[in-house]
Amino acid sequence: MANVPDAPLPVRDGLNPTRLRMPDTGPWPTVLGYLVARFPHDETRLREKVATAEVVDERGQPITESTPFAPRRFVYLYRDPPVEKRVPFEIEILHRDENLLVVDKPHFLASTPRGAYVAESALVRLRRDLDLPELTPAHRLDRLTAGVLIFTVRREVRRDYQSLFDQRRVTKEYEAVARYDPDLLLPATVRSRIVKERGVLKAYEVDGPANSESRIELLEVHGAAARYRLLPHTGKTHQLRVHMSSLGIPIHGDNFYPDFYDVAADDYSTPLRLLARSVEFADPCSGVTRRFASVRSLDWPL
């Protein structure tokens, strides 16, 4: 994860302030003029926020109506969160100590605020429910993936634990339910080059040196379906979903791979049968080996 400087505004109601970088050049005489041009539908609220000193620069100094436009500078403000329908699934806490909070995330709940899911994310829910304003994810899970998700509790240890994931010093085990193919020889290691372009929903495989690797093992057969153990060596976006699809056994409930089909945001009838079963690592603070495992299970498709 990128090492972003601490914001000059505190977390409020579980939400970080938004950080905006002003362009290199522009015709706007003031910072407020730039903000209004960028968010014209929010002009009234932006002017209210400036009037109440809720928009600040990187030093924490309030932006006023006359603050000059400053190229490449940052401003911080609280955006009004969207009105959201509650995702009707609860977070289970697996472990909590002075440094870590480990949870069992349900399907359909985003790990962190993004797009239409802001308050309805694991991070914001937990900050609010547990009064932990410094809570920060050490890694992320896709919204549709359930299982073990680790947060740091204090900013002093944040980078230590995030580095474990950045440097691949974590052993992660997933489980998935997909079609059973008796002709598929398993276990198998899949290596490929995966590309995920900004603004494009799906990742895809291209020719070239491999930048992703997953080991796929068969655990159990249940009629026409099977349960698989997935051991990713790398962490590309949608890697396990792409690799399972490339083997001809896309994960049950995957509406992205091999072909995308639309699913309503409040349709919880067919969860993606992908579970982050466990995470294991040497604790960077104590040196002790730690393992956390999900207590969730994956249903067989009907």
Tell me the layout of helices and strands.
Elements: E1 18-21, H1 31-38, H2 43-51, E2 55-57, E3 74-77, E4 92-96, E5 100-105, H3 122-130, E6 136-137, E7 146-152, H4 158-166, E8 170-179, E9 188-195, E10 204-206, E11 212-222, E12 225-232, H5 239-246, E13 274-282, E14 289-293
Parallel strand pairs: 7-13
Antiparallel strand pairs: 1-3, 2-3, 4-5, 5-7, 6-7, 8-12, 8-13, 9-10, 9-11, 11-12, 13-14
Helix pairs in contact: 1-2
Catalytic activity: a uridine in RNA = a pseudouridine in RNA
Organism: Rhodococcus opacus (strain B4)
InterPro entries: PsdUridine_synth_cat_dom_sf, PsdUridine_synth_RluA-like_CS, PsdUridine_synth_RsuA/RluA, RluA_PseudoU_synthase
Record keyword descriptors for this entry.
302 residues, alpha+beta, Pseudouridine synthase, 11-stranded mixed β-sheet, 14 strands, PsdUridine_synth_RluA-like_CS, pseudouridine synthase activity, catalytic activity, acting on RNA, RNA binding
